[in-house]
TrEMBL record, chain A:
It comes from the Eukaryota. The keyword ATP-binding applies. Residues 32-42 have a biased composition (Basic and acidic residues). The keyword Transferase applies. It is found in: Cytoplasm, Cytosol. The gene is UBA4. In the N-terminal section; belongs to the HesA/MoeB/ThiF family. UBA4 subfamily. This is Needs CLA4 to survive protein 3. Residues 351-443 form the Rhodanese domain. Zn(2+) binds at residues 224, 227, 300, 303. SUPFAM superfamilies: Activating enzymes of the ubiquitin-like proteins. GO terms for cellular component: cytosol.
Automatic annotation (TrEMBL), chain B:
PANTHER family: RURM1 PROTEIN. One of its GO terms (cellular component) is cytosol. The keyword NAD does not apply. GO terms for biological process: protein urmylation; tRNA thio-modification; tRNA wobble uridine modification. There is a cross-link at residue 103 (Glycyl lysine isopeptide (Gly-Lys) (interchain with K-? in acceptor proteins)). The lineage of its organism: Eukaryota, Fungi, Fungi incertae sedis, Zoopagomycota, Kickxellomycotina. This is Ubiquitin-related modifier 1. InterPro entries: Beta-grasp_dom_sf, Mopterin_synth/thiamin_S_b, Urm1. Pfam families: Urm1 (PF09138). The modification 1-thioglycine is found at residue 103. Signal peptide: none annotated.
C-alpha cells in the first residue's frame, strides 16, 4: 500500500471531499430506490378476474387437499375461486390473513394500506421483507409482490391510499367480503358503516400486547360494530401497538383466524353459527374464550330499522382521533417549564447545575435505554406515591423530566408544579428527540 | 346476611387499572342498604370504591362503564341479560373487557 506524507490540512480536505462523495452516492441510491418503488406501484395492473363455471385441472391438482374435505369439496373451492375479498390493513393481522387467502385460492384479493414497510414492523408483519423495509415500499404493494410469488393465479390489487369517507364505498363495492385488519378507531367505524351501507359481511379482528379479539359483523343476524359500540371510546383510553407493544404471533393467530372466518362466510358454513366474540389471551389459560353476543340491534344508528346514518360520516371527528397508529401528542406546558434536548445537554456539560433527572417511563422501557444519572419513577407510580420523589429531592430544587416521546413528561411536570415542585421542567420531545438532536448513537424504539 | 361470591375478570388492558391483576375473587352482600338485590349497577360502584386503582374516568362514565368496555355475564354479552339491572347470583363470573383496536 502506498503511503502519502500528508499534513492535517490536506487530510481534512480529503475527508470533506470523501464525505461529499458519499452524500452524492447516497442521494443517487435514494433516488433509485424511490423510482423503483414508484415503478412497482404503477406496474400493478392486476390479472383480470373472471368467474369460472368449473375448476381447471391445474386447480384440482393445486387444491386437492381442500377437495378431499367434505366441508369444502369441489363446490366450496369453486366458491373460493370465484370470490373477491378486500383486506384493509397489511400489517400484523393482514399479513397472515392475505397469505392464507391467496394460498387457499381466493380468486380476487384487494389490499388497502398507505403505510410504508418499516423495520420495526417485521417482527409480526410476515408478508413483508427487509429489502422492502429499507427501500420504503408501501405495505399494499409489498403484499401484492408476495402474493404474486405465492399464487400467480390470484388477481390481486394493491390500493396504496388511506381508506376514507370519499373512497371507501367505491373500493368496497368490488368485493364480496371485507376483512378489517386495521389499527385505529376511526377506520373501524368507517369500514363498519361502509359494510352496512353496501350490505357486505365484515370479518374484524384486533390485537395488542398479548391479547386479541375476533368477530364477524353484519352477517345474517349478527350485530354490526355500532350495535355493540354505539359510542367511540375516549381517545385517551386507546392504546396502540407502537405504544403498548405486541407479541409477533398474537396478530398472527388472529389474522389467521380472520382468513378462516372469511372462507366460512364464502362457503356458507358461518351462517349456521350464532354471533360470538372470540377472545384470545396468549399467556392466559385457557388461550381462547368464546362469548355469546347479542343479535342485530333494532335501534342501531346504521343497521337498525330506522337508521340515522345513511351515508359515510366524518370519522376522525366522530372518534376525536386521527386514522393513524401513533400516540396522541400533548402540549400542555408554558414555554418556561420546558427545555430543549440541546439546552439540557449544555447544562449537563457545564456541570454547574445540580439537578435531578427524572425518567417517568415504565420500567420495561427504562431497561431498553436510559440517560446516565436518570432516576426512574414511572408516571403511574409517581402519581400514587409522591414520597418516592420527596426522598430524592426538595420542592425548590430543579427537576428535569424525560420520557420516550415527550408526552408523559409534560403531564408529569404539570402535576409536579401542582404539588409545589416549581422548578420542574420537561425535556422537549423526550429520548426520541435526544437521539435526533444530541446523540445519534442513542437507541430508538 | 346472605352474600354473593363473585369472580371478576378484567381484560384487554383493563387489568392495568386494577394493579395488573386480571382475576379478582370478591364477596358482596346479596342486598344493598335499601334492601334491593345487588345488581350490576351496584357492582360497578362497588368496584370503583373498593378495587379500582387507576383513574375512575377510565372505567366509569355517567353511572355505567365508559364506552369501549364490554361487560360479560357468565360469558354472555350483558345486553342479553338486562345490563345494569341484572341481579347478581352467587358464583357469577363478570368480565369487563376493553375493546382492542391495534392490528
Amino acid at each position: 500500500m502506498e503511503s502519502y506524507p500528508q499534513d492535517s490540512n490536506s487530510l481534512a480536505r480529503e475527508n470533506s471531499q470523501l464525505k461529499a462523495r458519499i452524500a452524492e452516492l447516497e442521494a443517487q441510491l435514494a433516488q433509485r430506490h424511490s423510482e423503483e418503488s414508484k415503478k412497482t406501484t404503477t406496474e400493478q395492473e392486476p390479472l383480470p378476474f373472471v368467474p369460472v363455471p368449473r375448476l381447471s385441472n391445474h386447480d384440482i391438482a393445486r387444491y386437492s387437499r381442500h377437495l378431499l374435505l367434505p366441508e369444502i369439496g369441489v363446490q366450496g373451492q369453486l366458491k373460493l375461486r370465484n370470490a373477491a375479498v378486500l383486506v384493509v390493513g397489511a400489517g400484523g393481522l393482514g399479513s397472515p390473513c392475505i397469505l392464507y387467502l391467496a394460498a387457499m385460492g381466493i380468486g380476487k384479493l384487494g389490499v388497502v394500506d398507505h403505510d410504508v414497510v418499516e423495520i420495526s414492523n417485521l417482527q409480526r408483519q410476515i408478508i413483508h421483507t427487509e429489502a422492502r423495509g429499507l427501500s420504503q415500499v408501501t405495505k399494499a404493494d409489498s403484499a401484492r409482490q408476495t402474493v404474486a410469488a405465492i399464487n400467480s393465479q390470484c388477481a390481486i390489487r394493491a390500493y396504496t391510499c388511506l381508506l376514507d369517507s370519499d373512497n371507501a364505498l367505491n373500493i368496497l363495492a368490488d368485493y364480496d367480503v371485507v376483512v378489517d385488519a386495521t389499527d385505529n378507531v376511526p377506520t373501524r367505524y368507517l369500514i363498519n358503516d361502509a359494510c352496512v351501507l353496501l350490505n357486505k359481511p365484515l370479518v374484524s379482528a384486533s390485537a395488542i400486547r398479548l391479547e386479541g379479539q375476533l368477530t364477524v359483523y353484519h352477517y345474517h343476524n349478527s350485530p354490526c360494530y355500532r350495535c355493540l359500540f354505539p359510542t367511540p371510546p375516549p381517545p385517551e383510553t386507546v392504546t396502540n401497538c407502537s405504544e403498548g407493544g405486541v407479541l409477533g404471533v398474537v396478530p398472527g393467530v388472529l389474522g389467521t383466524l380472520q382468513a378462516l372466518e372469511t372462507i366460512k362466510v364464502i362457503t356458507g358454513q358461518k351462517a349456521l353459527e350464532p354471533p360470538t366474540l372470540l377472545l384470545f389471551s396468549a399467556f392466559g389459560s385457557p388461550l381462547f374464550r368464546s362469548v355469546k353476543l347479542r343479535t342485530k340491534k333494532d335501534s342501531c344508528a346504521v343497521c337498525g330499522t330506522n337508521p340515522t346514518i345513511t351515508q359515510l360520516q366524518d370519522y376522525p371527528q366522530f372518534c376525536g382521533s386521527q386514522p393513524v397508529d401513533t400516540p396522541l401528542s400533548v402540549n400542555v406546558l408554558p414555554v418556561d417549564q420546558r427545555i430543549t434536548c440541546q439546552a439540557y445537554q449544555a447544562l449537563c456539560t457545564q456541570g454547574s447545575s445540580p439537578h435531578l433527572l427524572l425518567d417517568v417511563r415504565d420500567k420495561v422501557q427504562y431497561d431498553i435505554c436510559r440517560l446516565p444519572n436518570a432516576v426512574n419513577i414511572p408516571w403511574q407510580h409517581l402519581r400514587r406515591d409522591l414520597d418516592q420523589l420527596t426522598r430524592l429531592t426538595a420542592t425548590e430544587q430543579p427537576i428535569y423530566v424525560v420520557c420516550r416521546l415527550g408526552n408523559d413528561s409534560q403531564l408529569a411536570v404539570q402535576w409536579l408544579h401542582d404539588q409545589g415542585f416549581t422548578q420542574a421542567k420537561d425535556i422537549i420531545g423526550g429520548l426520541r428527540q435526544w437521539a435526533t438532536d444530541v446523540d445519534s448513537d442513542f437507541p430508538v424504539y | 346476611m346472605a352474600s354473593l361470591a363473585l369472580t371478576l375478570e378484567f381484560g384487554g388492558g383493563m387489568e392495568l387499572l386494577f394493579g395488573n391483576v386480571k382475576t379478582h375473587k370478591v364477596t358482596l352482600p346479596a342486598h344493598l342498604a335499601n334492601d334491593r338485590p345487588t345488581n350490576i349497577k351496584a357492582l360497578i360502584g362497588w368496584i370503583r370504591d373498593n378495587l379500582l386503582q387507576g383513574k375512575p374516568e377510565l372505567f366509569i362514565s355517567d353511572g355505567t362503564v365508559r364506552p369501549g368496555i364490554l361487560v360479560l355475564i357468565n360469558d354472555t354479552d350483558w345486553e342479553l341479560e338486562g345490563e345494569l339491572d341484572y341481579e347478581l347470583k352467587d358464583r357469577d363470573t363478570i368480565v369487563f373487557i376493553s375493546t382492542l383496536h391495534g392490528g
